[in-house]
Amino acid sequence: QGKQKKARKYAVMKRMISLRDQRLNEKDRAKAPVKKKEDPSAIKEREVPQHPSCLFFQYNTQLGPPYHILVDTNFINFSIKAKLDLVQSMMDCLYAKCIPCITDCVMGEIEKLGQKYRVALRIAKDPRFERLPCMHKGTYADDCLVQRVTQHKCYIVATVDKELKRRIRKIPGVPIMYISRHRYNIERMPDDYGAPRF
């Protein structure tokens, strides 16, 4: 029988001497970490995100009629499919005057969809809609809506997008309007501080 060939090992590191090895001098050895005893009387610090003061009442005090509703692209499309009049259905849902708001990036998104969504574009250009200018680059509407709602807690977000809903639920004090069973509904969920979402 011939000599068995050993497979060559690639990227094998050279063995390094441990800093606690007995062969090292005392001054070169690594010092053992000293455990500090916890002081029971010391104040324990915890990092808690700061919520705006308007949320410490029963609910978000900045929300009130007339309601300003940020509309998403797919919300307009689903409203057309469900044959719902946007402004009238919002008023039926909230029993108050509603002002639908549309941002520049949502408008850009609808324009990009092309000829197939011309009805949605005509609805978005309705004079009853309030137009909100965007200062950021690009036309990704979801990021714009989340940022706007984080800064100003005076909006209700109207969307059917699951991913956007999930992101907005993390922001306390922001209600979500959605479509189910051919009508608009408001999502009521308790927040971190115990107040109802709406």
From TrEMBL:
Keywords: Nucleus, Ribosome biogenesis, rRNA processing. SMART domains: PINc. Its main location: nucleus. CDD domains: PIN_Fcf1-like (cd09864). It is found in: Nucleus, Nucleolus. InterPro entries: Fcf1/UTP23, Fcf1_PIN, PIN-like_dom_sf, PIN_dom. Pfam families: Fcf1. Signal peptide: none annotated. It comes from the Eukaryota. GO terms for cellular component: small-subunit processome. Residues 23-43 are annotated as: Disordered. One of its GO terms (biological process) is ribosomal small subunit biogenesis. Residues 67-166 form the PIN domain. Belongs to the UTP23/FCF1 family. FCF1 subfamily. Part of the small subunit (SSU) processome, first precursor of the small eukaryotic ribosomal subunit. During the assembly of the SSU processome in the nucleolus, many ribosome biogenesis factors, an RNA chaperone and ribosomal proteins associate with the nascent pre-rRNA and work in concert to generate RNA folding, modifications, rearrangements and cleavage as well as targeted degradation of pre-ribosomal RNA by the RNA exosome. Part of the small subunit (SSU) processome, composed of more than 70 proteins and the RNA chaperone small nucleolar RNA (snoRNA) U3. This is rRNA-processing protein FCF1 homolog. It comes from Ceyx cyanopectus.
